[in-house]
């Protein structure tokens, strides 16, 4: 049985990606409990009194490796009152409270796997990607889309993994064309929205692939419906509804 722990954390670093998208690096005051790639936490801005109730909070996917127990990352986009408070109130050095782990959206990677991520929907996949080994046995595909190249916020991590894991195949999609498509790491995004036809064409065995969907609800619903129309078994489709 999973034991949920409540831990005070210090905001060590805030990265501003632009367009209201941020990444927080948190230092917990106690060692983190065991969690699995794809699980999430609840983050509270107000002080938690153990003798009282848990304060208002919001769920965020854990965007760091389960092997790292002394710090963690979360990323978020400003879309409502709570994330608006986060943007206004959080500063480096401020304390927040988290409780974790939660969730059944666990990325296994024991079969050919397609990770489909929209925007900050990449976050539940980050811990899994960080822990991939060069001798990975199964093909792992990542289809990662965002409005513009600057909002592919974990591109550096994806590139690092691709350089060391031969059976990892990342593909990027952006709605707005970058100013330049040349870079030292051969970054060549496809222009346009993520689409099932493009994903399907890159998979070696699409009907025997496990699909993990993470992003806006409409995106997840659309892909789930289209995958079922392509005769993908229902138990091969896993969805993380993060809004």
Topology:
Layout lengths: L4 E14 L2 E8 L11 E5 L12 E5 L10 E6 L3 H9 L5 E8 L10 E6 L4 H8 L9 E7 L8 H10 L3 E7 L15 E2 L4 H7 L7 E6 L1 H13 L7 E5 L2
Parallel strand pairs: 7-8, 7-11, 8-9, 9-10, 11-12
Antiparallel strand pairs: 1-2, 1-6, 2-5, 3-4, 3-6
Notes on the protein architecture:
There is one protein chain. The protein has 243 residues and is α/β, with parallel strands linked by helices. Helices cover 19% and strands 33% of the residues. It has two domains: 5-102, Translation factors (Elongation Factor Tu (Ef-tu), domain 3, Beta Barrel); 113-241, Nucleotide-binding domain of ferredoxin-NADP reductase (FNR) module (Rossmann fold), CATH 3.40.50.80. It has helices spanning 81-89, 123-130, 155-164, 196-202, 217-229; strands spanning 5-18, 21-28, 40-44, 57-61, 72-77, 95-102, 113-118, 140-146, 168-174, 190-191, 210-215, 237-241. A six-stranded antiparallel beta sheet has the order 4-3-6-1-2-5, with helices on one face. The chain is globular. The two termini are 26 Å apart. The model has no long low-confidence stretch (mean pLDDT 93).
The string of secondary-structure elements, in order, is EEEEEHEEHEHEEHEHE
The shape, in one word, is globular
Beta-strand level of the residues, as a percent range? 25-35%
The assigned structural class equals: alpha/beta
- Going by CATH, the architecture of the largest domain would be 3-Layer(aba) Sandwich
* CATH fold-level name of the largest domain: Rossmann fold
- Low-pLDDT segments: none
* Helix count from the secondary structure assignment: 5
Please write the CATH class name of the largest domain: Alpha Beta
Mind describing the biggest β-sheet?
A: 6 strands, antiparallel
**Helix content bin:** 10-25%
- Overall pLDDT metric: 93
Number of strands: 12
CATH homolog superfamily of the largest domain: Nucleotide-binding domain of ferredoxin-NADP reductase (FNR) module
> Largest sheet, order of strands side by side?
4-3-6-1-2-5
Report the end-to-end length measured between terminal Cα atoms: 26 Å
Compute the CA-based radius of gyration: 18 Å
User: Domains counted in the coordinates: how many?
Assistant: 2
């Amino acid at each position: 049985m999973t034991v949920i722990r409540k831990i005070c954390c210090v905001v060590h670093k805030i990265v501003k990606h632009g367009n209201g998208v941020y990444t927080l690096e948190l230092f917990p005051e106690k060692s983190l409990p065991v969690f699995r790639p794809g699980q999430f936490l609840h983050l509270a801005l107000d002080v938690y009194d153990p003798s009282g109730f848990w304060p208002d909070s919001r769920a965020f996917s854990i965007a760091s490796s389960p092997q790292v127990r002394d710090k963690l990352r979360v990323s978020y986009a400003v879309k409502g009152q709570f994330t608006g408070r986060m943007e206004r109130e959080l500063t480096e050095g401020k304390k927040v409270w988290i409780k974790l782990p939660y969730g059944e959206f666990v990325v296994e990677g024991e079969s050919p796997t397609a990770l489909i991520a929209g925007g900050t929907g990449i976050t539940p996949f980050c811990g899994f990607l960080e822990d991939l080994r060069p001798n990975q046995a199964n093909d792992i595909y990542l289809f990662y889309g965002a409005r513009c190249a600057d909002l592919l916020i974990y591109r550096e991590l994806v590139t690092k993994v691709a350089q060391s894991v031969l059976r990892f195949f990342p593909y990027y999609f952006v709605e707005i064309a970058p100013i330049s498509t040349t870079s030292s790491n051969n970054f060549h995004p496809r222009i346009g929205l993520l689409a099932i036809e493009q994903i399907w064409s890159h998979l070696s065995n699409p009907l025997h692939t496990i699909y993990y969907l993470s992003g806006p609800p409409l995106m997840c619903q659309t892909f789930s419906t289209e995958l079922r129309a392509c005769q993908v078994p229902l138990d091969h489709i896993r969805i993380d509804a993060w809004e």
